[in-house]
Amino acid sequence: MLAEHIIVLPRVRASVQVVVPQQPQEPPSDHDFAAATVYFAVLRTKSDEGGLTDEERPNTIELADAIRYLEEIKDRIRVVRGDPLHEILQEVRVINDRLGRMDVRFDRMEAVQADILSRLDNVANRAADGVNTTFSVIPFRDGSMPTEHPHNLPPLHRLAAVNTLNREHLNAYCAGYGIPAGRVADMRIGLRMAIGMRE
Q: Does the pTM of the predicted model rise above 0.90?
């Protein structure tokens, strides 16, 4: 059991003309906390007010004592009740941790889904002939689409498109699919295999 703790009331000169809060309960109540908060706010407002003499205006010692009083009430409430903010922050950390793990799982699922879709397109391309049926655009290994920004490469819907690629586009496609640079003919064969075209 916690020992009783007496909180000393704040001191203020009578000339400041402010009502000092009553002695707080033990442990302090929400009303005691509200009274201490209002007391400090009134003192701070009076210290900023114009038209008051130095005797009517709270000095820095009285403001510091009001802060001390408010902090003592807050600290005592934390000791007696526990720190609800700390408990809430702990729950938020647990939730954030779970959300982080879910994000990782979703990223993995998206990567698997992209890989499956790429493989399906590749299989569909094997069934196409590139003359009567067009080929699907297959994403690069990093998941980006070759025909979209930042690559902006021409689509390879037909066999003739692969065979007529200039060296710059051929290099870009091969780099995106992880095909090593080499002879143009070998690079074209590797590219056709990567996107599922039949020889």
A: no
